[in-house]
Amino acid sequence: MQYEPIKKTLGDFFAGSLLLRKILYFLMDILLLRTWHVKRALKRIAPLLPSDALILDAGSGLGQYTWRMSRMNQKWRIKAVDISNEQTAESREFFRKAGLEGRVELQILDLTCLNDKNCYNLILSVDVMEHIRDDEQVFLNFYNAMRPGGYLLISTPSDKGGSDVRDHEGESFIDEHVRNGYGIAEIANKLTNAGFNDINARYTYGKAGSLSWRLSMKYPVKMLNVSYLFFILLPFYYLVFFPLSLILNTFDLILNHDTGTGLLVIARKK
């Protein structure tokens, strides 16, 4: 199933207007469960960062997390990088219009080529690592780019049904993924080999969250892969299922999960 063309269409539709882009970010904030988990983790990490922290949004996509972090602390400086020329250009224009050029830098970059040294107090990587084959090189690049005492925050699918894969022979729901997901031991081992300490990984998208994902993301994406005419029907679809998704997301956020289709990982460089 192709997700990136739909993401591109949404980005193009909301690209021209400052207000429309902010509306897009607001909708993503309340609809996407991973955003709920990342927001909470950022709030917990924020007081531990210097007031003038330098942050890397590694795989910034449409720029929603860069926007959120730019509003959390007006002294933070953020470098947002992505491999997509078009998404980077659209995000750069948005942050220029928002008057944040001085604090937010947008750059086209393949993370396997990241060569910054001892720069960042926080590196954020949301739904990125499942797209990168040479993940160990990227983890090493993250470590080298981070200042001592810095934090790495990762959100990615797990190997317990992440990418909607239920067995070893299954294929990812998202064609652009190069891996279906990580096991906790696997990603912790790779981060340890890169040099990270204090690695904490926990499951997200438990039973409630997985159901919410199907209702709010999987089925709409499947419809849009059939025809973009379904964009016309989406408001009516979400009118029915959005309230239920909010309830399911709330349960997923407040409960601890023995297993789940997502992983939230926090690691440090001492």
Describe the structure.
The protein is α/β, with parallel strands linked by helices and 270 residues long. It is built from 9 helices and 7 strands, in the order H-H-H-E-H-E-H-E-E-H-E-H-E-H-H-E. It has helices at 4-13, 18-31, 33-45, 64-72, 85-97, 135-145, 184-194, 207-226, 234-254, and strands spanning 54-58, 77-82, 104-108, 120-126, 146-157, 197-204, 262-268. Strands 3-2-1-4-5-7-6 form a 7-stranded mixed beta sheet, sandwiched between helices. Helix 6 crosses helix 7 (184-194) and helix 8 runs antiparallel to helix 9. The radius of gyration is 18 Å and the shape is globular.
Our Rg estimate from Cα atoms comes to 18 Å
In total, the number of strands is 7
Major beta-sheet overview: 7 strands, mixed
Backbone shape: globular
Instruction: Count the DSSP helices.
Output: 9
Structural class: alpha/beta
Low-confidence stretches: none
Provide a concise account of the structure shown.
With 270 residues, the chain is α/β, with parallel strands linked by helices. Helix content is 45%, strand content 19%. The chain has helices at residues 4-13, 18-31, 33-45, 64-72, 85-97, 135-145, 184-194, 207-226, 234-254, and strands spanning 54-58, 77-82, 104-108, 120-126, 146-157, 197-204, 262-268.
What labels describe this entry?
270 residues, alpha/beta, seven-stranded mixed β-sheet
How is this fold's topology laid out?
Layout: H1 4-13, H2 18-31, H3 33-45, E1 54-58, H4 64-72, E2 77-82, H5 85-97, E3 104-108, E4 120-126, H6 135-145, E5 146-157, H7 184-194, E6 197-204, H8 207-226, H9 234-254, E7 262-268
Parallel strand pairs: 1-2, 1-4, 2-3, 4-5
Antiparallel strand pairs: 5-7, 6-7
Helix pairs in contact: 6-7, 8-9
